[in-house]
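Re: [ENG-882] Designed sequences occasionally contain unexpected residues at chain ends

Forwarding the minimal case from QA. Structure tokens:
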């Protein structure tokens, strides 16, 4: 699948924000299309933080994690800036020349919304909940949320409905009683009279959600460039996390990603509240092992996979 390149309104190349004596170092990056989860990279390109490190980061978009991971595996991209972290994990397990170099989304930003009249997750006993496929992380997230509220499997019914928009549509149609969705759908749901029952991030703190992955042959030949990208990403996350930048960040998302101002503001507050963005490029060995264990229990990765196999020696710092 070919990745389409999208030009943002008012896009200013990171290389043009600051004009160093030498041309900025080019990095061909990719990611999934999106709004709030890509905030650090919008900040990097439009607030001069990439240019400050003499980086010109090209951002290409794809519609699925599988598609963007395939392009990275083929060497068409140098780096995937943000992707569901299990996609590169599966590829690496199968021998793809990739490596994880950073966690981006530290916790899942999913929100469980329900019909008016429901008061808590415990009220879903005997109800129908819309999640992703059986192998989709939303199913695991909801099961943890349900168990923490005294619900056992069999006391509720789950129904697969693909992406978050389809799950919200099922709730709107009255086919299900609750649904796992992503911002900004949860905000629109509340405005339409539905209720918020819980945040996945309050129940799932040990499984990273998205990560940054590199094409290993390129990264091996450009180790210092990868390290500069990681340092710049750390700076972008720190900029976002500074509450003094709230309005500026909201304005940026509205201008660049065409978000509604109200959705952008609510998304900013939610992502900060759940500490969504991982603040540093250090990678937790324990959290990677947790992911491996989940995927191994579901028979989606081999028994030989280890955190050390997932990361890039000389670039990634594994902690704990």
């Amino acid at each position: 699948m070919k990745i389409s390149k999208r030009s943002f309104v008012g896009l200013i190349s990171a290389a043009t924000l600051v004009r160093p004596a030498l041309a900025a170092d080019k990095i061909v990056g990719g990611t999934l299309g999106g709004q709030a989860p890509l905030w650090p990279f919008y900040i990097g390109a439009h607030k001069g933080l990439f240019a400050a490190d003499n980086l010109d980061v090209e951002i290409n978009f794809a519609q699925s994690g599988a598609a963007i991971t395939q392009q990275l595996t083929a060497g068409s991209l140098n780096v995937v800036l943000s992707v569901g972290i299990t996609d590169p994990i599966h590829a690496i397990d199968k021998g793809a020349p990739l490596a994880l170099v950073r966690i981006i989304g530290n916790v899942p930003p999913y929100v469980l919304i329900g019909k008016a009249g429901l008061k808590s997750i415990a009220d879903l006993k005997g109800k129908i909940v819309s999640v992703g496929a059986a192998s989709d992380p939303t199913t695991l997230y909801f099961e943890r949320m349900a168990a923490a509220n005294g619900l056992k499997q069999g006391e509720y019914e789950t129904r697969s409905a693909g992406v978050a928009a389809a799950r919200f549509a099922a709730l709107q149609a009255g086919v299900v009683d609750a649904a796992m969705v992503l911002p900004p759908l949860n905000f629109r749901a509340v405005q339409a009279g539905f209720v918020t029952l819980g945040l996945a991030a309050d129940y799932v703190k040990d499984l990273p959600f998205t990560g940054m992955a590199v094409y290993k042959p390129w990264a091996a030949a450009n180790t210092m460039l990868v390290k500069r990208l990681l340092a710049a990403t750390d700076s972008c996350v720190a900029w976002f996390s500074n509450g003094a930048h709230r309005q500026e960040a909201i304005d940026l998302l509205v201008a660049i990603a065409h978000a509604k101002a109200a959705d952008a503001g609510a998304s900013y507050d939610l992502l900060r509240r759940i500490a969504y963005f991982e603040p540093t490029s250090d990678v937790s060995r324990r959290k990677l092992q947790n992911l491996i264990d989940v995927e191994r229990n579901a028979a989606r990765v081999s028994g030989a996979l280890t955190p050390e196999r997932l990361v890039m020696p000389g670039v990634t710092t594994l902690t704990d």
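QA comment: On inspection the terminal residues look reasonable. The first strand starts at residue 25 and ends at 32. Proposing we downgrade this to a documentation issue.
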